[in-house]
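Supplementary Methods S3. Input chains for the assembly prediction are listed below.
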Amino acid sequence: MTPEARLERHQEADCLVLALTGPWTTLTVAAQDRALASLAPNGARRVRIDLTGLEAFDTAGALLVHRTVKQLAAGGLDGDLSGGLAAQRALIDTVRAHDRDCPPPPPRRGALTTLMAHTGRATFFVFDEAVSLTNFLGHTMIVLLRALAQPRRIRLTALINQMELTGLNALPIVGLISFLIGVVLAYQGADQLAKFGAEIFTVNLVGVGVLREMGIMLTAIIVAGRSGSAFTAQIGTMKVNEEIDAMRTIGLDPMEVLVLPRVLALILVLPLLTFYADIMGLLGGAVMANWVLDISFFQFVRQFHVGVPVWSFWVGMIKAPVFAFIIAVVGCYEGFKVSMSAQSVGKRTTAAVVEAIFLVIVLDALFSIIFSILGI
Amino acid sequence: MDGAAANGGTGSPVIEVRGLRTQFGSQVIHDGLDFQVAPGEIMGVVGGSGTGKSVLLRTIIGLNRPAAGEIVVLGRDTGGLKPAERRAMQRRWGVLFQDGALFSSLTVEQNIEVPLREHTRLGAAFRREIAGLKIALVGLPPDSANKYPAQLSGGMRKRAGLARALALDPEILFLDEPTAGLDPIGAHRFDSLVKELSEALGLSLVMVTHDLDSLHAICDRVSVLIDKRVRVGTIDELMQLPDAWIQDYFRGPRGRAALTSGGPAGPSPSAGRESEDA
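Predicted structure tokens for the full assembly:
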């Protein structure tokens, strides 16, 4: 292994001699740092540090020599150096010339204070966030309405591109997950309903469950995870690159160039995706019903026709554009909130997904209340 | 210059690149490139945009894999190193990336301690002392120790990056455009700092730069990347070469300004203006 720094000490009359031998470098001095820090003079009046036996030497070694001399001087002892090459002496001089104390890191507060401070900061953060998100929501509404009044303001290429990214490319995952959820609903429902000999009502369960809630909720959650996060990361990275500032100076409105196509694309695409998810979910239920319960496709469709009111479908579809708007606005908002660091992109992307899913579920609960008051 | 004169002739080169070929896909960046750096020397690397200055630097420090050729650093061929040997090599060189590349989640002091933590068994208190010394060596004020990179100016971030590169007392220091983005005064100060440190600590330096003032002020020799190879020499020697790019570079308006003001005497007012956005 690598040789270590060595320290030999002996007494000559009232003079303590410290002989440094071997390599004294950053990699080798670890043990001697402790030995020198706890150096006891043992009644000596003077100390001589002998550098004759030094091999490799760098600033860590020089720092130790300098520190030891300083430490001895503080104890009222004279320390002087002997031997050593000119370059080694020069290095010690360089270190001495740059001896300045850095302030200690700010003290860490106690657990309770930290907890209080965190709670307080988080509370204010949530409040500020709510205010500025509402502000952004309003701003987006204005831009959206203005664009509807003057459709020329809508950037068609960007809109189509976003629709492809958020809609078309999401088809496989949305389809697969909806199909599987249809399968699960049918299977679990059949299991329970069979106890009453009411297997046929599995169709109602799957139909109402998928159309009213599952189709739209799953699609919204997948889109929030896929596209909401993508919006934040894209806009956030552009912010870090100062592209947003560049747009403003050229006279482009980032709200119009970046936010509008994304919000519009999602509003257009999410209902379509939901419809597709509904179909796939029902298909999954039908396949399972056919396989486990021996309910043929024909029976399934007939029971579906009789047992599932058409409003179930509309309840799901009405929610889609609202959820789309929320997901897109939250994603874009968090993107604009990114500050100049790599960390903040990650933090904001997480926040976008969490907030979007949270708001989607809160809104879904609100919709349920409204629909139940309306008696739908 | 003294450093190179004193050490340059004696030892074998600290970096020796032979027959280097690098390519990305079908695009060949270097072909049959030979490059040497003597101990204690400050070597400048210049070349037009896209000639592969930074690529050369990244290849030497092992971030790019060369397509052919061998790279010998401090007597070891870096091609066939085992992971443990590679780590041992990494302790012996420091790299300053453009704009410092400090870890944004750590304070300046913690940034400097990262290599110390990773490669040594030093106690926490002594690590702090070393970090404090490096902060002083690169000329940062003591209170910057507890600041985060985002709280520092561009020039201070470069100094902090330099302090981190110096944390393990490397033998070779690689600098990628160290003065880019600094104002002329800041750039001049940074040059003097680099020169001072390389003398005090006995460093060999490889510096990719566009800054003609830096080249004149501190570089012992300059490598010019042309036609996928390098031409090496002092600035005077290079100016004797008939190559059009070299002539343009050193004898163009900026080159002349740096030449007349040249060296450690400091830029004349007109030269300062010339190089303001260099």
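Strands of chain A lie at 6-12, 15-24, 46-50, 54-57, 78-82. Chain A has two domains: 6-97, 143-374.
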